[in-house]
Structure formats: C-alpha cells, structure tokens
Recover the amino acids of this structure.
C-alpha cells in the first residue's frame, strides 16, 4: 500500500512549505522514494511554456525531479478562474485532474506528499478545499499551526472541524514559529489538548528569524524601485532596515545585511557617516546590503553630485530609487510576506534542518 500525506495549515504564512520540504527530505533520507504534488495552486509562474505553482517549481529544484504541470501542479486557480467555474462548472473537471495526478505519482513513488494551499477552506468555491482534496486523495493530514497556547488551540479546533466534516483523517500536528523560551510550555499545553482529541503532536519548531529575512529584489518589487547601481547583487538578504534619521541609534558594528533608507538630500552625509564609523571600528566589510533612495513622489533615474560612488561600487552595494517617501517605503517593507522560493535555497536547506531536528515522524497516525 502506498503511503500518502497531505500537509495543510491553519492559515497562510504559517510554514506549510517549510514543513513540507523537511518532511520530504526526512522520508527520502529514510530510504523511501517520495514524490510531490501541489494539487491546487494560487500563485502560478510560467516556465518553459508551462504554467505551474511557484511551490512546485521550488520542490522540483530542491528535490531534483522534472516538473510536469499536469502531475505536480494540476489545478491553478488564477485570476478569473473561480468566476469561470461558477458560470460553467461542467467545463472544469478539476477533481479529475487532481485524481489523475495522484494516480501517476503513486505508481512511481512509494510515498507521495501533497502540499495544500492557504487556510483549510481555500478552494471551496470549486469544490477543492484542503479538506476536500485530502479526502479525495485519501491522504492523512498533517496540520501546521503557528505557536502559542490559547490562540493555537482555538485555531486548531476551528480548522479541524472542516476536516472532520469531510471525513479527512488527521495524521498529526506541527506547531511552528515558537520562541525558544516558550517551546516547553507550548509543547506541554498543546500536547495535552491534542492528546484529549486523539491527535499526535509531531513536534514544535522554533522561531527562526533568518527565515523571515526578505531578499532585496523582493523589496525592490514592492516599492516600485529602479536599480541605479549593482543590479547583479539584488539577491542579498536584508536583515535590518535603518532610516537615515535613526542612524545614530544603530549599531553597525554588530549588524550586517543593513538596508539604508535615505532621501537624496541626506545620501552623501549618511554614507560618509557609515564609512567613518567602519574606519573607526576597523571594519573592512560594509554593513550595507543595499540603499534605497526615497523620492517623495518622484522616481529618480540618477543621482547628481554623488560623492560616494566608489564606495558603493567597491562594496557592490545595490542602490535603488523609489517614488515613495520614507514612511511609504517603511510601510511597504513591513507588510511584506516572506516565502521560501527558488531564489532562497539557503533558507530551504535551513527549513529541512529544522524539521529534521525537531519532529518525531514515528508519531504520525497513518
């Protein structure tokens, strides 16, 4: 009998992809041939004339399999898809697409891990909520929830109700993003409640700040930026964001990956200050991962009287202009949702390590 698992989450951005990566790697390391499928996707990308979910592309890259849209990403609910379905459901046999993909994968692999999308109800409009798909595939569900106690238990109970309604089996729960000093408390109380419900707690994953660092290129897109210098270095991680007006309160000696947000008028002054600080502290490497020049409504195409071009070029620091002011830039950055993708494979490897070190897969309820 083939083994199947369906990885779902209580809501978006909880760590579903992180856990799915780790589970796949762990089962592969145990000697099983493990396949992957994203039955229902919302965020598609076009690659080699194929439209696939972006998570499917990540897994094909990390797990080294050839990506086939109808098998690894059979249903994409892009813009307008739900309205088209509601108008003419007979034209969209989505359930048959999902079942066909599962049959192909289960012939080739000893285990198939299906990754859900969004919260449990996503996809309901076309009859393919996470609970619908798990029941359709007869795949036991691992539910990922964000760490806490009261909120976590309430959220679990709400989300589990939909899986119960669809008669989908629950294989276990993973609690993610728990502060290290709260892990034992969360493990105790969540484990107590899950035992009452007859559901195993597979593990508690610690909050890992580095997994939440955005790429500079992601910020660039969010702020409608224009790259002025060093476009080749846009795939750097941003660990800290500092406004020029608050530079005096920041410890550049300890922090790296700093994104400086500065107006054109304060650019030269700010970079001079950073260079002097680095010289005084004996720092050879620049702490800056990038510079954003705010425009107060205007998109700058070049900087007049730029006195520190040599410094920016020597340290290969990307410089970006944005029409937003400093406040607008800060708001855009603070609202970013950071996801693991093919441009952050280092994060993906760390996600695999977290699952390996913190989950007990022998507790899975098949």
């Amino acid at each position: 009998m083939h083994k199947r698992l369906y990885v779902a989450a209580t809501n978006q951005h909880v760590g579903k992809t992180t856990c799915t990566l780790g589970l796949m790697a762990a089962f592969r390391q145990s000697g099983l041939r493990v396949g992957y499928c994203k039955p229902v996707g919302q965020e598609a990308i076009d690659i080699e004339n194929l439209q696939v979910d972006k998570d499917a592309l990540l897994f094909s890259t990390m797990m080294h399999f050839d990506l086939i849209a109808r098998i690894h990403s059979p249903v994409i609910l892009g813009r307008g898809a739900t309205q088209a379905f509601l108008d003419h459901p007979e034209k969209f046999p989505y359930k048959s697409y999902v079942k066909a993909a599962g049959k192909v994968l289960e012939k080739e692999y000893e285990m198939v891990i299906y990754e859900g999308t969004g919260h449990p109800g996503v996809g309901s409009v076309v009859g393919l909520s996470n609970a619908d798909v798990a029941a359709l595939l007869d795949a036991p569900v691992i539910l990922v929830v964000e760490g806490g106690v009261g909120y976590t238990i309430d959220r679990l109970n709400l989300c589990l109700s939909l899986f119960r309604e669809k008669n989908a089996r629950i294989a276990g729960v993973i609690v993610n993003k728990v502060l290290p000093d709260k892990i034992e408390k969360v493990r105790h109380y969540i484990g107590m409640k899950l035992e009452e419900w007859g559901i195993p707690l597979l593990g508690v994953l610690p909050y890992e700040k580095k997994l939440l660092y955005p790429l500079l290129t992601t910020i660039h897109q969010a702020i409608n930026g224009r790259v002025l210098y060093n476009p080749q270095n846009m795939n750097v991680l941003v660990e800290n964001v500092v406004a020029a007006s608050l530079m005096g309160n920041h410890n550049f000696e300890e922090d790296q990956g700093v994104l400086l947000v500065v107006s054109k008028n304060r650019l030269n002054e700010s970079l001079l200050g950073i260079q002097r600080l680095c010289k005084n502290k004996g720092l050879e490497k620049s702490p800056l991962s990038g510079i954003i020049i705010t425009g107060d409504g205007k998109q700058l195409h070049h900087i007049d009287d730029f006195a520190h071009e040599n410094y920016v070029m020597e340290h290969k620091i990307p410089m970006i202009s944005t029409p937003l002011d400093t406040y607008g830039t800060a708001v855009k950055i603070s609202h970013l949702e950071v996801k693991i993708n093919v441009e952050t494979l280092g994060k993906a490897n760390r996600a695999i390590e977290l699952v390996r070190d913190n989950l007990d897969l022998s507790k899975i309820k098949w």
The longest helix spans residues 150-165. The radius of gyration is 23 Å. Residues 257 and 289 are 5 Å apart (CA to CA). The mean pLDDT is 90.
